[in-house]
Amino acid sequence: MQKYEKLEKIGEGTYGTVFKAKNRETQEIVALKRVRLDDDDEGVPSSALREICLLKELKHKNIVRLHDVLHSDKKLTLVFEHCDQDLKKYFDSLNGEIDPDIVKSFITQRSNRLSFSHCKHVIGRQQKYPSLALNESGELKLADFGLARAFGIPVRCYSAEVVTLWYRPPDVLFGAKLYNTSIDMWSAGCIFAVLKSVTQILFMGESEDEGQYTFTVFLNHEQSSLGEGEGEGQYKSTSLHLESTVHLSYSKYFSKIRHRRLNRLLICNPALRMSAEDAMTHSYFADLLPSLHNG
Amino acid sequence: SELLCCENASMDLDLTVKTYIDPVVLKDDRVLENLLKTEEQYMPSSASFFSCLQTDVKPEMREVVAHWMLQVCQEEERDEEVFTLAMNMMDRFMSLVKVGKTQLQLLGAVCLFLASKMKENPPFKPEKLAYYTHNSVTLEEIREWELLVLARLKWDLSAITPHAFLDQILERLHLNLPEHVIQMVKD
């Protein structure tokens, strides 16, 4: 541990404390993430193990870089590239005003990152804006891979307890366990909406019940998109459940944030949701610098 | 727990409920290219580790431990990929580090432990693995060797297993088979 000099505590991560530190040799600023290995537990926590293994594979400018893993009997230390702030802190500093071009730049960088990981066989399952970090030059980095996993055969049961509640797509919220890359695109849509409206969370619910209720509102509006496309089997079991639930006005969510691109990300039927690759070629991004398109 | 009633509903429909083919993964050749490229990075560093490095352990012993590992996975109804991933780790470790006869089953158990953490939730309990070795392996050893294997493999555990290619190949064969036949092929 002599290699790094601890500077300050940055926060608490999914499984331990995060410090800002300096490499004594190179003077480089890094973030150290501590993972305790308790005597009585299961060794290295699987979330930490997956995060490390996937990050080692995913080297991309919009994914936070894992430089090194140090371990002793009692703890692991992950050495990450340091990012100055997360997106939430950045928003809080803006007081509700955001430059549309910055929104566009952020969204491009996110889509770029997603398209890259999906291509590499990894689903994020952890898209929320506090996990998105920013460095000094405005580069957006995905920072938290605690829930990510590499996917094998798409016809496969995964845990439904994934993705921070507010960013969980309706199919998964209602219990679908056979999901795929479309899960990340819903969350991308939520974040896009949050960016457009600044600081307002799109589907806020304190519990899964409440989250489902909020979606019911949304889904009643989206009925027209049901039943199209292939493989809606999983999805139908969801909509059956919905028909018995309450109708409510959705206008409060959509007066502000209706946007043609959101319409294609926030589609309840996962089979019809836009892919990260399609998102990258959307006309919304057409006027951006070509350098942003090349990951 | 609040999701239970929905989960039951989808269980009743299990026969008809299938996820759809994910075009993002199956229709894009870059995914297959990435899989092939990545697979190569996770090969044992030398295929001839029995002739040069492993003087104590013989190929037949590896076979015996491999059988044991497969049986544990079947007994515990583990995902098929846990076994193939664990074997990949074991071979890569043996191509780097000389292993004693008495350590081989310990290595096998630790690789199962790590592979299940990568692929499944919940992973194997160390107690369970020790039990399957008739307690010839201790929990302490499993914990120590977990870190040893991770360090020697440089934490590179997300190897590509043969399963990852199955859907890619089936998609490209354009067989137009009914869904249940495809499922049989996969099983």
UniProtKB/TrEMBL annotation, chain A:
Signal peptide residues on this chain, from the entry's feature table: none
A GO CC annotation given for this chain: cytoplasm
InterPro entries hit by this protein: CDK, Kinase-like_dom_sf, Prot_kinase_dom, Protein_kinase_ATP_BS
Record carries keyword ATP-binding: yes
Single GO biological process annotation from the record: cell division
Record EC number: 2.7.11.22
Presence of the UniProt keyword Cell cycle in the record: yes
Coiled-coil ranges (or none): none
Catalysed reaction equations from the record: L-seryl-[protein] + ATP = O-phospho-L-seryl-[protein] + ADP + H(+); L-threonyl-[protein] + ATP = O-phospho-L-threonyl-[protein] + ADP + H(+)
EC class of the enzyme, as a word: transferase
Positions annotated to bind ATP: 33
GO molecular function: ATP binding; cyclin-dependent protein serine/threonine kinase activity
The protein's name in its UniProt record: cyclin-dependent kinase
Species of provenance: Meganyctiphanes norvegica (Northern krill)
